[in-house]
Specification:
single chain, FAD/NAD(P)-binding domain, nine-stranded mixed sheet, six-stranded mixed sheet, binds flavin-adenine dinucleotide
Length: about 425
Amino acid sequence: MAKDIIVVGGGIVGVCSALSLQRAGHHVRLIDAKKPGRETSYGNAGMLAEASFLVMNNPGLVKILPKILLNRTLGVRVNWRFVLKRLPWFLKFLSYCRKAHVLHAASALRQLLTLSLDAHKELIKAAGVDHLLRQTGWLKLFRTEAGFAKFSKDLEIVKSFGARFTVYEREQIRQIEPGLKPIYCKAVLMDDTCAVSSPADLTDAYVALFQRLGGVVEQTKVTGLRQQDAGWCVECGANTFTADDLVLSAGAWSAEMASWLDYRIPMAWERGYHMHLQPGYAPALHRAIHDIEAGFVMAPMKAGLRVTSGVELTDRDAPPNYQQITQAVAMARQAYDMTDQLDQTPWMGRRPTLIDSLPMIGAAPRHDGLWFNFGHQHLGLSLAPGSAQLLTALIDNTPPSMDVAAFSPTRFRL
Ligand SMILES: Cc1cc2nc3c(=O)[nH]c(=O)nc-3n(C[C@H](O)[C@H](O)[C@H](O)COP(=O)(O)OP(=O)(O)OC[C@H]3O[C@@H](n4cnc5c(N)ncnc54)[C@H](O)[C@@H]3O)c2cc1C
């Protein structure tokens, strides 16, 4: 039966949720404070990953914890005041650093990533934006043999879940990416990973498709959520919108909104930055690269070469700190010839992360007609359409195409 459904939050996760529900025959209203896709979903590295299913909470993290806490790694920057304020979140996150959890999360994420990549390819076609899709894999690069040796352990797990990759030596790296400077001794190409050349254009195209199918977009800030009669009332200042069901998919803002209804969502955020640079005279890159030891990703984008930083753990709305992206850009210049910085200031976004690094997809435990779809951490762009399909099946009470237990809100006491 067709329902009136409101989706709160128009990042890629909310947009894909709205589109999937609209395609399933519901009447959907998507509400975002900004133009959809202008927060975290705007500035990511554009990877549509299918092999990035090893979560951050793993036993290896505990070993390097002292270095992380002293800000001696390039990939993670920690604000101590934030850590102390959020100590329960950090301790719970660390409690998942177990091999058993790595395998449990890998199994769930691998299935959802595969489902999502297929769904993205279909949606990209339906939205008429095939030109955005790049199917040339993702190149992980190593400056030292020791760095590669560490990663090899992860590769064993990646292989055991059926993901395809190819290892390249120094000379072969020169052949597949002749533009790179000769600083890398090993590379691993994740063969089936895809990418888009503008995450913002992708979201815009999905929103346009949603609207063509009859979906409605409201650009207004949500200020309250209320259960009313058999449905939901969404307050946006003086305006209210009503619906049978409500989907909360507001990324890093979801926990705060859920708290209005007395849910305690174990979420924090991993902030990250990007900067675009003008390519120099070296041959063009064929694909995004990930320098694991230097902690940056560099992706060829419509707007230039996008260098993205690792993780910054600090308050969601703290002023930006450009130290990490400045360092990432300097490291990226060691790898590839680039000239001007194209952005006035670096962009900053917030990856929404739950204590077990798995998204929360499903019915809110204490309210009929309330649905959660958030917490997609480093993988929100990749996971969005698959998560939307699972959510749609749950709302329609039809069997989802994979086991959703790992993502169920009931795995925590909220
Ligand atoms: C540097 C970086 C690189 C990344 N690279 C990749 C990558 O290559 N591949 C990948 O898969 N993922 C990547 N990610 C992660 C990915 O970008 C996120 O997981 C994803 O964007 C989260 O999407 P979302 O829709 O949940 O949240 P968001 O995109 O943040 O959307 C949340 C929306 O909620 C809206 N909202 C908030 N409060 C309100 C309110 N009160 N009223 C109305 N609307 C509200 C916001 O305006 C926003 O549009 C990266 C992230 C970063 C930071």
